[in-house]
Design a protein that fits this description.
His_PPase_superfam, mainly alpha, elongated, about 180 residues, sedoheptulose-bisphosphatase activity, PGM_Phosphatase
């Protein structure tokens, strides 16, 4: 598979991507479903148009629309000098700069991005979002006048692959366990 590394490029969902989200949304989003808008306090969405469109499609057929916030902290990885390059082009560039031994692959989690974010930068953003979620939950739980059966304290984060991996690993401590 050939993958173009894009973080700051604003690339729309493909027609296939939109169709996939439409199918997912109809099955997974709605009252009593996996993503129940009644239970959402808010939705944090990456500023990239593909994430924004994903969010729009997911909640198209729901009666209840959650509060949606565009959150810069859940944006995609900033690839810096590697933005818009294919994996083989990144390896060639790194080799030309003496950063990549021959016959090895580039690993964003270990090697980082020239002129872009490091894995630690992404971890710091994920930590900040997790803190934001914890604070939101804490405020919701301790809200004056809230009944035990009140709904609406959940948060959904809509982002892309690398950022979602980091959110999971930060929450689960997978980076410390060497799982990524």
């Amino acid at each position: 598979m050939v993958i173009l590394q894009t973080g700051t490029s604003d690339i729309p969902l493909t027609a296939n991507g939109e169709a996939l989200i439409e199918r997912l949304g109809s099955k997974a989003v709605g009252s009593g479903k996996f993503i129940d808008p009644n239970l959402l306090g808010k939705v944090l969405v990456s500023p990239r148009i593909r994430a924004q469109r994903t969010c729009q499609i997911l909640f198209t057929n729901t009666d209840i629309k959650p509060t949606i916030e565009t959150e810069q902290l859940v944006r995609e990885w900033t690839y810096g000098d590697y933005e818009g390059l294919y994996l083989h082009e990144i390896v060639e560039q790194r080799q030309a700069h003496g950063l990549q031994p021959e016959h090895t692959d580039w690993n964003i989690w270990i090697d980082g991005c020239e002129g872009g974010e490091s894995a630690q930068d992404l971890t710091n953003r994920a930590d900040a979002v997790i803190d934001q979620v914890k604070n939101f939950h804490n405020e919701w739980i301790h809200k004056s006048g809230r009944n035990l059966d009140d709904q609406g304290g959940d948060i959904l984060v809509i982002c892309v692959l690398e950022y979602s991996k980091e959110m999971k690993s930060t929450r689960l401590g997978a980076m410390n366990l060497g799982l990524l």
